[in-house]
Amino acid sequence: MMEHQYLDALVVGAGFGGIYQLKKLLDQNLSVKLIDMAGDFGGTWYWNQYPGAMSDTESFLYRYSWDEEDLRSYPWNRYYLQGPEILAYLQNVVKRYGLRQHAQFNTELTKAQWDDAEGRWTVETSTGHIFKPKYLVTALGLLSRQNFPDIPGIETFKGDLHHTARWPKGLDLRGKRVGVIGNGSTGVQVITAIAKEVEQLVCFQRTPQYSVPSGDREVPPGYREDLNRRYTEVWQQAKNSMFAFGFEESTRPTFSVGREEREKIFEEAWQKGGGFRFMFETFCDISYDEAANEEAASFIRRKIGEIVKDPEKARKLMPSGYHARRPLCDTGYYQQFNRDNVDVVDLKETPITRITPAGIELSNGHVCELDVIVFATGFDAVDGNYTRVAIRGRDGNSLKEHWAEVGPTSYLGISVPDFPNMFMILGPNGPFTNLPPTIETQVEFISDLIEVAEQGLTRTGSNVSGLTDGAEPNGHVNGDGQGEGTGEAGSKRGQHLALEPTREAEEEWTDLCDKLSANSLFRKTDSWIFGSNVAGKKPAVMFYFAGLANYRKALKDVLENDLKGFKQYVHV
Q1: What separation in angstroms does the CA of 154 have from each of 50, 149, 162, 376, 437?
Q2: What segments bear the compositional bias annotation Gly residues (predicted)?
Q3: Is residue 348 packed enough to be buried (19+ CB in 10 Å), middle (13-18) or exposed (0-12)?
Q4: Closest among 536, 531, 157 to 374, alpha carbons compared
């Protein structure tokens, strides 16, 4: 058995959250290691390299806010970033701050157990390495555990089977007969990207989607120069807004204007592009008022009818329920169904009965013969990566057991009772917002908690890492660009606090999240946002729906009031 490696902190996950958390803790002069089951940095963007992968957050915000020089100089020239561009950006941040030397890849967390006597976690990995950190920070990703539907005969298919989250490099689909199961954000993107090159494309659709144009195009001359002058205020606005997508959310009710004006506002939003813009920049009540939601939904349905020329295809693509799933945008999704080689199967009319060696058999007996089946079936979101491994707290119970009765719960979306010094980035009941600003907020809060624990005493009225300001200044880096750490010896120094939330704090936060989402139409719609996309999974509240600005205020309140909601005890 390998020797135990003592650390101040172990970070699990090498995406947006893990990269920033590694840097922050190194800047605090701690000994830190990052592990990931992947082969390199990138997180979601390492795994999701399917054709058409892109962010639906505009380029100017899909990055870190704390390196102002990089914000102003890093090259990009379109309103939206493609997957490979995001991966390259993250790799550049890693190189810029010398983070690679602190990372270990192809290493999966298999078991973690809190040792109350020692005040440390014992973390076992797939490689046999055993780590003994004081602090365990999990950056496992919101959407990272693949969801495969249970379809009979899947193992008999003679062609190629691929999940979009494990897309093989160099896969050539030209001239192939391809079936895509799933039409959420990923399905919409991959269908749009491959339609023009395959021989035949069949979309197996369970639920039609409301999608609006992304508006992706090259930014005009002078755009970057103007943005660079305003970047500080841009980030301040984003972090102090509801959804942090870089626009002012509307305060105007849908029926405060007449029909002609409503149509004009929707049309302008359609032409401008952006799923979150269409839902939240147009009017303020689309997400919770049924009549207002229907106004937006009927506008999108009319657009689908105008775009898709085949009446039968248009009928199948036309949504009928609330416009209350994750707002989607696309670069020409509906237009692809005007191609002769692209068709759509309504799985509610003709469900899949089984997969055969030749393809997919439907309930009417028809077999769609295929060379490739693509599963764009999404993820066991939010808690899926936590329940698949044995992370056990003080009482020996796992997170899966802790969450068995009422579903995934937490305090602040970050910590769980009886799991001392374990902090989650994008854990259950964190804010439903644009992810990079939320990730930064949580990383900075976790870093503050760890700083308090290292001091061995609480602070009152202390300065908070960026929770009230906009963009942060650069972190501390030594002369050769390497983040400083203390090495293994430093990991055993001095007294530190063990921190964990009280059960009362978790219950109050869970109750708050429940009440905040009670009137939302998102809650009345089956989707991954409430865990209802996975067969057999009990739907539960997964998010805090009061927005990023209110969430940041809640975290600031905790830090300025003796870590309100946390139990604290000293380990030496």
Answers
A1: 21, 10, 12, 15, 40
A2: 478-488
A3: exposed
A4: 157
pLDDT confidence bin for 147, thresholds 50/70/90? low
Is residue 275 helix, strand or coil?
helix
Contact status, residue 139 vs residue 11, Cβ threshold 8 Å: yes
Structure tokens at 62: 């899909």
Q: What is residue 343's three-state secondary structure?
A: strand
Into which CATH architecture does domain 4-145+381-475+495-571 fall? 3-Layer(bba) Sandwich (3.50)
**How do strand 54-58 and strand 80-82 relate by DSSP bridges?**
antiparallel
**3-state SS assignment for residue 183:** coil
Count other Cβ atoms within 10 Å, centred on residue 318. Answer: 15
Helices (H), 214-360: 223-239, 259-272, 275-280, 290-307, 311-317
Q: Which amino acid is at 217?
A: R
Q: With a cut of 50, say whether residue 478 has pLDDT above it.
A: no
Amino acid at 529: I
As given in the structure block, the two tokens for residue 95 are 């190189």
Between residues 219 and 476, which one has the greater pLDDT?
Answer: 219
Task: Indicate the pairing of strand 130-138 with strand 422-424.
Answer: parallel
- CB 416: neighbour CB atoms within 10 A? 25
Summarised one tens digit per residue, pLDDT across range 55-65 is 999 999 999 99
The angle at the Cα of 282, spanning 281 to 284, to the nearest 5 degrees, equals 80
Residues counted in the chain: 572
CA 444: distance to chain centroid?
18
Identify the residue with better confidence: 498 or 382: 498
Contacts of 279 (CB under 8 A, 6+ apart): 286, 287, 296, 323, 327
C-alpha span between 258 and 250 (Å, rounded): 16
Local structure of 556: helix, strand or coil: helix
